Amino acid sequence: MIVKKFQALTETEAVIKAQEELGSGAVVLNVKTLKQRGIFRLFKKDIVEITAALEEKDFVQNISQNKPRFQNNIGINSHSINIVADEKLDAGTKSEMLEVKLDSLHNSLRNQLEKETDFEKAINEVTYSKQEEKKVVREKENNNFKFLQLIYQKLIDNDVDEKFANMIISEIEGSLKKESNIDSLLAGVYQKIILKLGEPKPIVLGKKTKVAFFIGPTGVGKTTTIAKIASTFKLEHQTKVAFITADTYRIAAVEQLNTYASIIDCPVDVVYSADEIVDCLKLYESYDLILVDTAGRTHKNEEQMTEIIDLLQKAANTKDLYDIEVFLTLSITTKYKDLVKITEAYKDVQEYKIIFTKLDETCCLGNILNLKLLTNAPLSYTTSGQNVPTDIEVINEQSLAKQLLGGND
Ligand SMILES: Nc1nc2c(ncn2[C@@H]2O[C@H](COP(=O)(O)OP(=O)(O)OP(=O)(O)O)[C@@H](O)[C@H]2O)c(=O)[nH]1
Ligand SMILES: [Mg+2]
């Protein structure tokens, strides 16, 4: 049974509201007049609140098949959901997932369920007292729906795009058992997010000299990230690293890279045009890793975008000699709409990997999942601070999935 409250200036208006939402089969269970309080009672009329109810089967018939499964709002009507099978979660993964500390989400889900008013409880008791078995099944389905609604809301709160949050929840809905509990639902969503984030692809050195280009909008942290990666490789693996910069636009850009190079103790070269890149790479062919910095590009400036594509194409001609990778560096603080535009501007760059910077500047990490699902490009690193070399890590999908679900990492 669906039980909902509707408020309006008159009882008739409230009933019309209820019928609009629940359909003509809705019945009024209670009518109450709510007195205005405080100073406003002098200016405002009292309002009428009705409690209306509807059998779930009637409600399901009423709702449009084409509507998205959830709206960006937890307070929508609950109705039964058709949860079928759970074969996709193997036992090992399940128990591992259940150990995950998603305490805050877990608690908020429980609290939400306990919010049912005494009145609604009483109504449920009367309705189901003669059909105990039916009641248990319905409550479970109803709870499943509420859990999924709350998980959906957590994703939205973390800036996961509505389209992707709906997609994840729909997939979970279709793959869980009828009697799923909160743990298996959480484990299912958690596992789904990890699968969607995919295997991280950081820089791995091979036989050929690795050449890594760092491209992206202005000020996102390309140069700083290069310094972090270079220091990590030098300190932890004694890798022979060289820098090349193609950023001759910004005053002090070369100086900035030179400063890092002198601290890390590696050579730097500057290329002034795309044509110079091949010769410049040749200078360092005996090195293990060449990190190429580029000037920040505004995706709206087509001329700048052409230059960067030209540089990458010239370098790609040497792919027999070098193992070339491109890292599109993006700040997590950029709005999703702008990130979409940025990736459109870089659509001619083949096979880039994504680095997300400035995780320390936000608590909402949904853009990482959004961009992965939008571009299908592998995720590589995240950075979370200005300190070189410490504030960088290979993307941690487990920690990210937990945070997206409202847990602490
Ligand atoms: N909070 C925070 N700041 C960062 C991070 N990474 C870089 N920064 C800062 O962001 C600013 C810009 O960093 P750069 O490395 O110069 O950025 P860039 O992309 O090379 O900039 P352009 O070359 O001008 O396009 C600097 O103040 C960095 O210290 C990060 O992960 N977190
Ligand atoms: Mg830079």
**CATH architecture heading of the largest domain:** 3-Layer(aba) Sandwich
Briefly note the structural class of the backbone: alpha/beta
Looking at CATH, the homologous superfamily of the largest domain is P-loop containing nucleotide triphosphate hydrolases
- Unreliable stretches: 63-101
Strand count, sense and closure of the main sheet? Answer: 8 strands, mixed
Pfam families: SRP54
Subcellular location: Cell membrane
Protein name: Flagellar biosynthesis protein FlhF
Organism: [Clostridium] fimetarium
Descriptors:
single chain; 409 residues; alpha/beta; Alpha-Beta Plaits; Rossmann fold; 3 domains; eight-stranded mixed sheet; 15 helices; binds guanosine-5'-triphosphate; cell projection; bacterial flagellum protein export
Question: Could you explain how this protein is built, in words?
Answer:
By secondary structure, the chain is α/β, with parallel strands linked by helices. It folds into three domains: 1-67, Alpha-Beta Plaits, CATH 3.30.70; 71-197, no CATH class; 209-404, P-loop containing nucleotide triphosphate hydrolases (Rossmann fold). The protein has 15 helices and eleven strands. The strands form two sheets. It has an eight-stranded mixed β-sheet, sandwiched between helices. Helix 10 (253-264) links the parallel strand 5 (241-245) and strand 6. Helix 3 packs across helix 8, helix 9 runs parallel beside helix 10 and helix 13 (336-345) runs parallel beside helix 14 (366-375). It is elongated and about 85 Å long. The two termini are 38 Å apart. The structure holds guanosine-5'-triphosphate and magnesium ion. Guanosine-5'-triphosphate binds at residues 218-224, 247, 250, 253, 296, 357-358, 360-361, 383-386, 391.
